[in-house]
Amino acid sequence: MQPENLSNREPEFKNMEKDTIILGVIGADCHSVGNKILELFFTAEGFKVVNLGVMVSQQEFINAAIETNAKAILVSSLYGHGEIDCQGFRDLCLEKGLDRILLYVGGNLVVGKTPFEIVEEKFKKMGFDRVFPPDVDLKKAAELLKQDIKARFGSDSHGPRNDDQAGQPEKSSPETDAGTSKARNPKAG
Amino acid sequence: MIKNEKLDLKEFYEIRKEVLQTWPTGQNVSIEEGIKLHRTIPEERRFAWVMKKAREKRQTLLQPRAGVALIEDHIKLLRYLETEGQADLLPTTIDAYTRQNRYEEAEKGIEKSKQAGTSLLNGFPAVNHGVEGCRRVVESVSRPLQVRHGTPDARLLAEITLAAGFTSFEGGGISYNIPYAKRVPVEKSIRDWQYVDRLVGLYEENGIRINREPFGPLTGTLVPPCIAIAIGIIEGLLAIRQGVRSITLGYGQGGNIIQDVAAITALRELAEEYFRQEGFDDFELTTVFHQWMGGFPEDEAKAFSVIALGAIVARFSGAEKVIVKSPHEAMGIPTKEANAQGLRATRQAINMVEDQVIFKPEDLKSEVELIKAEVRSLMHKIYEIGQGDVAAGTVAAFEAGLLDVPFAPSIYNHGKIIPMRDNEGFIRIFNKGNLPLPEEIMAYHRQRLQERAQAEGRAISFEMVTDDIYAISKGKLVGRPK
C-alpha cells in the first residue's frame, strides 16, 4: 500500500488540465507529517501539487509559483514562528509579478494559545486570502480553494468540475484535520 | 569515510576555532572557565547525579519543555515550572531559528519579541544570548537544567551552554538530523555530534560529568520501536566513544501500553548489551519516556487524559524520567500555567501507580523478544556494512534505506516504510521498505495488521495510516473507519 495507491482515483482527471498549487512549510519549520498528508490529499482532490516540503522561504514559494504558473500557494506553519515568517509575503508576490495568486495559510500560526479570530485577522491583514486553524476539515478547505480559484481566475481556470467530485469514492478524503495537521513532528526535543 | 573513533584533540581544537567564529558570542567561550563554573554547582543541580540517584531509588522524574525569547521572561517561566509545576528537572528549549544556525533571524526574533511584549520565538535563542545570558538563567534556578532543541549542528550551542553551566545536552547526529532537517547529510551531522560528544568528554576528563540524551521519539509519528531503539543505541555508542559517561536513552509513547513498556525494557537491556559489546563498562545508563508526541485533542480535558496515560506508562516502564506535555499541545506552545498543569496532572497519575507493579517482565516477554530480535537484525546489518564500525554503518544504512524513519523531512531518509496500528493499537510495519527485518518477523506484523483489516471490514490501506495519525487528536488510539 504505497502512497501512490491514492492516485488510483486520479484517472478521472487525467485528461483535464489541472490547477497547480504550491505546498510547503515556511521558515525554519521542519514539521513534515501534515505536509505529506496534504500532498496526498490535494493530489487526490484533483490538483497538480508541487510540494516544496519543509523549511521553505518566501522566495522559494514564489519562484515555484512563477515556474509552474500556479493558482495558489498553501503555506503551512506549525512551530509558532508563522507570524515572523509570513510578514511581507503578499508584497513580495506583487513585487515579483504574482498579482493574482491566492495565498492560503494554516497551522499553529502564532506562539501561544490565541483565539482563532485574532490569528485570522492578523494574517488577513498581511494579505492572506484564507487562514485555517490546525483542525480544519481538509475537504472544506479543498472546496474553498476550488471556489476561490474559479472566482479569481474565472474562465482560464480549469479545475475539476463539480460532477467529477461527486463521482469520487466516499472515503476518498483522509478524515483528517489539518490545514497543516496537528499530527506532526515533535517541536521540541 | 566517517568512523566511530575518538576525535583527536588537536583536530577538535582546530574545528573549535572555526565553530566559535560562526557568531560573535562564540568568540570568548572558554572551556576552562566552564569547568571552573561547573565545579561550583552542587550535586542536586547536576543532571547526571540526579539521574543516577533516580535509577538507584527507582524514581520517575518529571521534566517539561519550555523556552521563550527573552532572558528575564525565560527565568520567570522556569521558576514558575519549578514552584507551581514542581518539575524535578528543568529544560531550556531552543527556538527553531537557532536550531538551523540562523542566528540573524533569531536576533530579529529577539527584537520583535521586545517590541511585541511577548515571545515571538518558540524557544530560547541561547547562542544569541551568549555565555553571560545563559549563565544568568542557570544561576536563577535550583533544579538541574538541560538544553533541549533539535539542532543538526549544535557545536556552538553546546560550547556556549555548557560553558554557562548547563549540565545536560539533548540530541544526536541522527535524531537531531533526520526528523529536524531537510538537507543535512547524515555523515555531516554525525561528525558534528562527535564534536559535541568530544566536548562533553573533555569536561568529563576534567571531572565534570555532563548528561547526554539522544532524542528517542524521532518524528513522533508511528515510529516502530525497533527503529527508535536501534538509533538510540547507535547514538549512545557514538557518545560513549567520545568520552560521555552519563547517558539517557529515550523513547516516545506509541500508545499501546504493553508495546511501550516492552520497548523501554528492550531499550535498556539492549543498550547495556551493545555498550558492553563495544568494550565499555564505565557508563551510567538511564531511560526517558516521552508522553505522546503526535497530535493532541484540542479539548483540554481530553488532553489531560493523554498526558495521564503517558505518565502511568512511563512509571510502569521503569523510565527514570518522563517528558511532560501540556493541555495546550494541540494549539502549539503552552502558557506557563498550562505547562505547570501538565506537570501536576503527570505527578498525580504517577503517584497513584508508583507502588504498583502490574507489568512484570515475564508478562511482556514475547513483545520484548520481538523488539529485541528486530533491533538485533538492524544492528547486525549496520555493523556488517560498516565493517564493524557503527558510524560508517549508519551512514551507509541511511543511504541504502536499511535505517528508515517514517514521515521524516530529511532528503537523506528513504521514507519508504509504512507503519500502522494493529487491532490492539500496537505499531506494526506493513511495508518494511529496505529495513533488514527477517521474513518471519514481517509475516507476524502483516498477520496482526490483517486482523485489524478484518475487524474493520476494509483492506489494509494507506488510509489506515492517516486515520491512525489523527486518531488520538480525535479521541481514540486506533483510527477506525466511521
From TrEMBL, chain A:
Principal EC category? isomerase
Pfam families linked: B12-binding
What InterPro entries does this protein's entry cite? Cobalamin-bd, Cobalamin-bd_sf, GlmS
| Domain B12-binding per the UniProt entry, residue ranges | 18-152
State where composition is biased (Basic and acidic residues): 151-164
Q: Region (Disordered) spans which residues?
A: 151-189
Q: Which family does it belong to?
A: Belongs to the methylaspartate mutase GlmS subunit family.
- Designated name of the protein: Glutamate mutase sigma subunit
From TrEMBL, chain B:
Write down the SUPFAM superfamilies for this protein, in alphabetical order: Cobalamin (vitamin B12)-dependent enzymes
- Output the Gene3D superfamilies linked to this UniProt entry: 3.90.970.10, Methylmalonyl-CoA mutase
Q: Which residues bind adenosylcob(III)alamin?
A: G67, N122, P179, F296, K325, E329, I333
Annotated GO biological processes are: anaerobic L-glutamate catabolic process; L-glutamate catabolic process via L-citramalate
Q: Which domain of life is it from?
A: Bacteria
Free-text function comment from the UniProt entry: Catalyzes the carbon skeleton rearrangement of L-glutamate to L-threo-3-methylaspartate ((2S,3S)-3-methylaspartate).
Supply the name of the protein: Glutamate mutase epsilon subunit
Q: Which organism is it from?
A: Candidatus Saccharicenans subterraneus
